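Re: weekly structure request thread

Next one in the queue (147 aa):
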Amino acid sequence: MLLLSNSTSNSSPNSADSKDNPQPELPAAARGAPLLQQQQQQQQQQQQLAWNSLQQQQQQQQQQQQQQQQYEEQQQRHEQQYEERQQQEHCEQQQQRREQRQQQQQREQRQQQQQHEEQQEPPQDEQQQQRLEQAQQQQRREQQLRP
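Done, posted below.
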């Protein structure tokens, strides 16, 4: 039985020691260390979030600037294409007017030439009369040349 009581008393041998030698309390700085570490981690996380947010804003600004630049370049191309088309149409219209003027001048010249030729040519019956006289003169010459 004594053994049994010994074993029971020995079941918690450190219990007396822990009462006699209590664990020393951590100094205030050591107790605050986990709290300080937690605050630093939170601060780092907030800084990281702020940094990520700033980077996101910068990326968005860059995208917006790129989109704006692309839009402006596209507008410039459209305006340039429009101006080129306008200029081309203007040139084509000028070319058409020149061709029309040339055609008109040619028609007028042909009409003038035709009128001039008509004025130079004797009427048809006069031509026949002249040919007849020429033929008669030719016959007379031939007769004179014959012995």
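Residues 5-13 have pLDDT under 50 and may be disordered. The helical segments are 2-9, 14-20, 28-120, 124-145.
Next request, please.
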